[in-house]
């Protein structure tokens, strides 16, 4: 399977995803959008994953490749090919289907519970509550074609399913290395800001050791569910 992972910034990589998918026999292609890598044609892609980043998906003037990325979202779903969006990638899918991207009522930085809707059982993508790593100040509205999957106390829209795509506002793919990279490169998000849903560096590290394994296992389950029909 030809799997393409779209990376928006150098410091926010695929976490556990590359090794996980390689263990399942996928050929992994990392598309470094920040370095000018071209976006391939949807016919060449079996599975697409769009990662996060600190920019806004609305800023097409500074990131013109966002236009093509949104086209790819629509094409993947139209073709019924699996598409996973994480954080910025989730907002990319929402924006591609004309859903608004707005400031979240609360900025979320750190490990907080996500509550999955009752409908998740039929999609095979959810369970009651899981603690996940959040790192965002914007949120998506749910596209009209989509089913809302999850919410949190600080953000009403945390995940949705739209055809062959799943969009997650949070980071189930986090690894110890990716958390450290975020802490180094996004220090202003937690060190210079306060709020009910903003944790300290110490808290994020401690909770990572507590919750990361369950989050990773849940990420694995979501991916296997997305790919089981292929």
What does this 3D model show about the protein?
There is one protein chain. This protein has 230 residues and is an alpha/beta fold. It has seven helices and nine strands; from the N terminus they run βαββαβαβαββββααα. The radius of gyration is 16 Å and the shape is globular. The mean pLDDT is 93.
What is this entry, summarized?
The protein is α/β, with parallel strands linked by helices and 230 residues long. The chain has seven helices and nine strands. Helix 2 packs across helix 3 (88-96) and helix 5 (176-185) crosses helix 7 (201-227).
Fold topology:
Blueprint: E1 2-7, H1 17-22, E2 27-32, E3 47-50, H2 65-78, E4 83-86, H3 88-96, E5 101-116, H4 120-123, E6 129-140, E7 147-151, E8 159-162, E9 165-168, H5 176-185, H6 188-191, H7 201-227
Parallel strand pairs: 1-2, 1-3, 3-4, 4-9
Antiparallel strand pairs: 5-6, 5-7, 7-8, 8-9
Helix tally? 7
The percentage of residues in β strands lies in: 25-35%
Return the string of H and E elements. Answer: EHEEHEHEHEEEEHHH
From the alpha carbons, calculate the radius of gyration and give it in angstroms.
16 Å
Helix amount, in percent?
Answer: 25-40%
* Shape call: globular
| N→C terminal distance | 9 Å
Q: Regions with pLDDT < 50 over 5+ consecutive residues?
A: none
Query: How much is the average pLDDT?
Result: 93
Features:
single chain; 230 residues; alpha/beta; nine-stranded mixed sheet; 32% helix; 27% strand; globular
